Amino acid sequence: MFIAALRPFLLVPALCGALTLASCAPATQSAAGQSSFNQSSSDQSSDSGDLTPRPAGSPDVLLLAVSGRCPVACQAPGDNIDYLTPRGTVQAVADTLSARGLTVESYAVAANLSEHTPRTIMQAQVGAGKTVPAQQQGFLQLEARLNAAYNGWIHGRSNPTRIVLLAHSHGVVWTHALARAHPEVPIAAMIDLDGVCDLWETDNRAAVRTYIGQLGHSPWAFDLADSCGSVRVGHIRYDLKDVVFPNVQWGLEVQSARLLSSSNGNVMANLPFDSLENVRLDGTRQGLQTYRSAGETHSMVSRPESQAMAWVKVQLTALSAAWTPTPAPPTADR
Asked: Residue ranges of the domains in the chain?
């Protein structure tokens, strides 16, 4: 495995008037230190009928994370890695929930259909002095973990484990596809960090269709290879990564800045960036919040020290206020 040094994002000069951004720009929601959530929406509910408690030791929250694409010079999706873990982003979200007394289990994968061994790792994505496992997991392994959690910790449980999805860039496409593929699984919260579709189909369509061909059937009720397709909501067509499905209760969306000022005073365009607010299939934004992070690039918003992640942590603390930790088992008298 070769480790290379490369800038994780691309900045290009922007000419005045060359970019028409206002037409697709959402209104910024909530300052980084303020919560805009309330608990008026119904909380995650369990199946009706006879319910039993979760097994001892199972987590209150299962955090499933998907990182994004490697930089342009790499060979995606084969060189895609889970960089949200070494950056500390996964831990930052888990710590936010743990601070409320919730037990959290995390599982993070790369933006790839399945497990793979990257040949080149971009050190800028990982961080100085940090490493990642040689074998990287992908969507199929993430889906298997979700199914196992549903069967063991959610379905028929009086205190079901809550699912939180966290993703950056291309990873957002995969988490939205995961939620869409499993409408039976309640998703307590979905965190989108500047989701983009650019190059996703080029990277992944062939692999998905090859996998389906090998199976002889599709295990999904829709074309997973078309996960960056669009759907009409009202009078607007939205990429599927901008659509939040009914089984998702809360949605936190971060968008990076459109234009940045460089040290020499020039205006630069931040590419790529998410341009549309997430929406429900019925056209509403019930339970959804969007924050545009001024001055932060596509890569920067995924770092735990960013103002974008500061906003995420504030919102996550607020929306999880009604999540009740499972009491610890009583200790034996000595």
From this structure: 2-14+57-319
